[in-house]
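thread from #wetlab-drylab

HS: before we spend reagent money on co-crystallization trials with nicotinamide-adenine-dinucleotide, can we at least see a predicted complex? here's what I'd submit
DV: go for it
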Amino acid sequence: MSSRIAVVGTGYVGLTTGACLSHLGHDVVCLDVDEEKVQALQGGHVPILEDGLDRLVVEGLHTDKLSFTTDVTRAIPGREFVFLCLPTPQAEDGSADLSYVEKACSQITDHLDSGAVVINKSTVPVGTTALVAAALGRYDIHVVSNPEFLRQGTAVHDFLNPDRIVIGADDRDVALRVASLYLDLAAPWVVTDPASSELIKYVANSFLATKLSFVNSVAAVAEAVGADVEDVIQGVGHDRRIGHAFLQPGPGWGGSCLPKDTSALAHIAESAGYEFGLLRSAMEVNVAQFERVVAKVEDLVGDLKGKRIAVWGLTFKANTDDLRDSPALKIVSLLLKRGAEVRAYDPGIDPGRSVMDGLLVVPEMFDATEGADALVVLTEWSQFRRADVERLQESLARSNVVDARNLLDLDALARRGFAVRSIGRR
Ligand SMILES: NC(=O)c1ccc[n+]([C@@H]2O[C@H](COP(=O)([O-])OP(=O)(O)OC[C@H]3O[C@@H](n4cnc5c(N)ncnc54)[C@H](O)[C@@H]3O)[C@@H](O)[C@H]2O)c1
């Protein structure tokens, strides 16, 4: 059954939600305040790198099932369901900043049809469903929590093949109406109250972040005792109680979600009287991991002042162009602070893009390594894994590599006499 849907906020989550729901046969209009973005989307140009999203946007425009606007009076009236996909960045005290959500509520409230269901897909603290209802100030509107679990880089796939669909509502019939939007997706539903639904999203991201910090700590132990972390992970991950996912050591975790969501959960817990020490430790381990990567570079080249360092990868993960809270940028910033000259290459980042003061972004991977004292691999793009080792050696001034993603072939590098530091590998 086709429903009339509006999506407020057309970023990574909103655009994926809008395009996928139109693909499932619903009639969707996406509303955003960013005129440039809306104009691009009206012309079928997707401003973000996300596999398969451009195809769905073009399909939706072609079938007239998907449209884009900045006009709230066009977007909201006549819509049975209104999704909120707005930013919830980290506030100074570590809590989630709800000002975008509140502002959008004030903009849409006068235009909502009586009986409409407002569905919050933004990641928000416990109590926000009630806060949205209060901000709307309409007693003829339903508000439901429906957190999103997609991963950037595979957002379309994840939206259409979710592990579960979580819906939090005070009224079960309204929850089931929201669930009906996803009838074509084969996924279990978890229908619960709004507080539990809101908490589920934070718990999921905090658990994943903790798992990553745990494995980075295990990698540090492996280095100290002469074990190989990759073999340790194999041995542990086959245990079905543990699994292999998110058990990959790296330069530290980042992106637009894990840092702000762990911080928000720690803040929620503290405000409720519980000191979430385990989560705080996971966050501290992560900050220390950025430093550990820089220490590995220093171990190879000595004092960084005046040294030329090549960086492969700036985005927080491969197959996205998103730099928000990227661990690579934290590490580059530390390298620059210690006086290194840094040249970076990333397949998702236009060399013209101004990323950080003092950082030169170059168009090719071997432009970055030319004459460098060391290469540091910070994002797991597959083209780095396949890099020609001979060419790499020819371009570098010194055969030093810090592989913070455990991506490169250690044996191939060793055969050519490279000095290599990775994360917990022997
Ligand atoms: N990015 C992810 O991987 C991901 C995954 C799951 C959940 N989330 C959560 O989803 C929410 C959105 O994240 P995102 O990454 O899509 O953010 P984003 O910054 O990519 O997109 C937000 C969009 O909202 C628009 N916007 C801001 N104020 C508006 C207003 N008043 N009216 C209309 N549009 C407005 C912005 O212009 C922007 O296009 C956040 O709460 C985030 O934590 C993100």
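DV: The chain has two domains: 4-192, 228-422.
HS: ok that's useful, forwarding to the group
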